[in-house]
Amino acid sequence: MSIVVKQSESLLSESKKYLAGGVASTLRASMKPTPLFAEAGSGPRVRDVDGNEYIDYLLAYGPLILGHAHPSLAEGLNDALKRGVTFGLQHTGEIELAKLLTEILPCADRVALSGSGTEAVMLALRLSRAYTGRTKVIRFHGHFHGWSDAIFTSFPSADMKQSETASAGAVPPGTGGQSENSLQDIILLPWNDIDALEETLRREKDSIAAVITEPIMCNNGCIHPMPGYLERMRELTEEFGIVMIMDEVITGFRLGLGGAHGKLGLKPDLVTIGKAMGGGIAISGVAGKADIMAMIEKGTVGHLGTLNGNVAATSAALATLRELAKDGGSVYGKMERTADLLVQGINSLFEKHRVPGLVNQAGPVFHVMFTSEEKVENFDAFNKRDAAKYSRFAELMLAEGVLIRPSGLWYVSAVHGEDEVRATLTSVDRVLANL
Ligand code: PMP
């Protein structure tokens, strides 16, 4: 089966004349057979400019937790359009949203609003350094925290510093133009290794401002923390007065209304949130402890942004979060069941076709890998997967009418249901037979 993407191909050529690289975010260039141009989306489906329709598990790299064009989101945005989308003045939507966030996120005494996950992480790092008066930050191999100079270590796997590859004469892909100095305070450690963390913390505790972690390593393998790992991280950071930042840009409002930390019953000092929060409209934030967030009120840490907390973004976030909170958040059970059916189905099809592969799942997010490893529980094991084969799989799935991210991460929305699961598994069956 092949797919006609002539319009997308020709638009890409046109785009390249005006838009640097032809795509607005570098990651999008990797889609095969070509970066697709979208025409419109509805619920769990999206249509491209060539008229191909896909069941959508890309979901705009995560934000579309309510699927495409959800009526509640449209209503919220319409109100904003009528009132004015932004003022640069205060408005009550900001209070409503911040209040709601303090109610649903267990660690949130106060909230600050920004536009992207990258900005939220940038702010969280500044708050941590200002609060502790220290400079170093521990982050982990395989985690992604946006592309600011302060933390971006390579593209797309975020696993190297320039200094580590300099001897081989290589620059980590995508890091050109980034000052090596900007990363000198970053300590990169393997994740899920409590000894490595404890030893580093004990040795350098007086210079470490923060430890930043994804609660589940969603970006590379959907790898869960080992039992007790994050709890021990919490204990140690507390003991040494180090700020624990949980980057919940993916997991926030995805694994549950209270994010991963709500599910785990853990209180980091700060969390960063974004993606699903706005249902597809640009909004992000930092939430956390009052005394750390007070660095903003005191004016020690500037928190700036022309469009921070704008009416369109806060309306979108309020509409999305209220929709997710309906019926006691029952939509989370639904999303998880849909994802469970997909994961069970994909696993059985791996067996049926004798394809070595596995799926790591965190509720409505899961990572599909072609690998002979029995388990993928750390970044090294993740890196043994056959990424090229998966990229081919994604291309063949596209021809079947199923849109998945070429890297392996699938998102399920509140509006994906059994019809989509059935059609998707039929496609996986056919594609695995021909792979
Ligand atoms: N943190 C995490 C965990 C992410 O997955 C991402 C984006 N994939 C970011 C931060 C950066 O967010 P944004 O793309 O909105 O800047």
TrEMBL record:
The keyword Cytoplasm does not apply. GO terms for molecular function: pyridoxal phosphate binding; transaminase activity. Pfam families: Aminotran_3 (PF00202). Transmembrane segments: none annotated. Its cofactor is pyridoxal 5'-phosphate. InterPro entries: Aminotrans_3, Aminotrans_3_PPA_site, PyrdxlP-dep_Trfase, PyrdxlP-dep_Trfase_major, PyrdxlP-dep_Trfase_small. Keywords: Aminotransferase, Pyridoxal phosphate, Transferase. Belongs to the class-III pyridoxal-phosphate-dependent aminotransferase family. This is Aspartate aminotransferase family protein. It comes from Cohnella herbarum.
